[in-house]
Amino acid sequence: MPKLADDLSMTLNTRLNTLSPSKIRAFDAKASTIPGIIKLTIGEPDLNTPDHVKKAAIADIEANDSHYAPQAGKPELLKAFSNYLKRSINVDYDPESEICVTVGATGALNDVFMAILNPGDKILVPTPVWALYFQLIKLTGAIPVQIDTSKDGFVLTPEHLEEVLNGEGKGAKAIILTDPSNPTGRVYPEETLKGLAKVITKYQLFSISDEIYAELVYDNNVHHSLSEYIPERNILISGLSKAYAMTGWRLGFIAAPSQIMQSIRKINAFLVTSVTDNVQAAAIEALNNGQDDPLKSRKIYEDRLIFMKKGLEDLGFELSTPQGAFYIFAKIPDTFGQDDVAFANELASKAKVGVTPGRYFGKGGEGYVRLSYASSTEDLQEALRRIKKYVDNI
Ligand code: PMP
């Protein structure tokens, strides 16, 4: 095995030294070594990609559509995303100049952060949050400023945002909002979003809205987008990973005003040239002919949420109003203390149920654990049985 030359060993990109490997992944890897464990740690649908979508990709491969696609995306797919945004949030985006197809929502986040952030820029990140944001932001040399939303039921209020902009976040350039939220499952109320839009405008920020869970909202909750109120400064990110159960296909998109989009498209082309040709064909099929697919997923997740919510509440867990995505952020009952890492470790080793410690999602997550209900109903039932047995025996 080759050993790196001694004179090169200290010359790696020093920015990487500020990044820590994902604690969520590390915890998951450790939990995976426990025989028979049921893992509710993963943010990945257990459902399969719809058959008609798979068939479209197979047909596309057989038709030899396996070349470089246009760099910003196939025109038909750009149009399909534009139509999707029109019907879901009633905002017009020009497929020719205001949309870009990306390698998953993660690729979209990278493009956007690189397009707007310079080293030293501050970007506000309401927490608890999907922790990869921190790493991607730091890779650009920018500074993530955490805003702990736990005091307001895990929703950032306009007042809190303004307070931060006059304190630790003074001079910030942008804010990123995840709605519906991973890890809390909260959905932003329309009035709150409107209020935030006003503050974002007053302080001349870019807003980035990560709407990857937009289709997965339950009960009477409705998803709204900052693009409805401030399309001139919002950069909308979404994709097919969650609602269409297409995580492995790696297909996302960005919608933004054309002046920002020019930079985003440039970066996307530099980084990936273009997104895989036949994956784009599958996405066109999903968006144009699969509008019922997210509804079916939603029904399945909602039934599981109802089941899990009741089960956990009966056991004394306080839940942070799960309304969307496929996560429950549960407060650990007082009898177990408030050390979420210790609790999650105990639950994994003694009850053989894997949940993720809340502190791994940033400030405000301490004392909570995240459970994903994107697991089979049988696994969820068994997990609840095991948690009950564990709790009853303490
Ligand atoms: N944003 C959020 C909030 C997520 O939870 C995830 C996946 N866990 C992503 C983006 C990444 O989505 P993709 O798989 O399409 O890259």
UniProtKB/TrEMBL annotation:
<keyword id="KW-0808">Transferase</keyword>
<feature type="domain" description="Aminotransferase class I/classII large">
    <location>
        <begin position="37"/>
        <end position="387"/>
    </location>
</feature>
<keyword id="KW-0032">Aminotransferase</keyword>
<comment type="similarity">
    <text>Belongs to the class-I pyridoxal-phosphate-dependent aminotransferase family.</text>
</comment>
<dbReference type="InterPro" id="IPR015421">
    <property type="entry name" value="PyrdxlP-dep_Trfase_major"/>
</dbReference>
<dbReference type="Pfam" id="PF00155">
    <property type="entry name" value="Aminotran_1_2"/>
</dbReference>
<dbReference type="InterPro" id="IPR015424">
    <property type="entry name" value="PyrdxlP-dep_Trfase"/>
</dbReference>
<dbReference type="GO" id="GO:0030170">
    <property type="term" value="F:pyridoxal phosphate binding"/>
</dbReference>
<dbReference type="InterPro" id="IPR015422">
    <property type="entry name" value="PyrdxlP-dep_Trfase_small"/>
</dbReference>
<dbReference type="InterPro" id="IPR004838">
    <property type="entry name" value="NHTrfase_class1_PyrdxlP-BS"/>
</dbReference>
<keyword id="KW-0663">Pyridoxal phosphate</keyword>
<dbReference type="InterPro" id="IPR004839">
    <property type="entry name" value="Aminotransferase_I/II_large"/>
</dbReference>
<dbReference type="GO" id="GO:0008483">
    <property type="term" value="F:transaminase activity"/>
</dbReference>
<dbReference type="GO" id="GO:0006520">
    <property type="term" value="P:amino acid metabolic process"/>
</dbReference>
<protein>
    <recommendedName>
        <fullName>Aminotransferase</fullName>
        <ecNumber>2.6.1.-</ecNumber>
    </recommendedName>
</protein>
<dbReference type="InterPro" id="IPR050596">
    <property type="entry name" value="AspAT/PAT-like"/>
</dbReference>
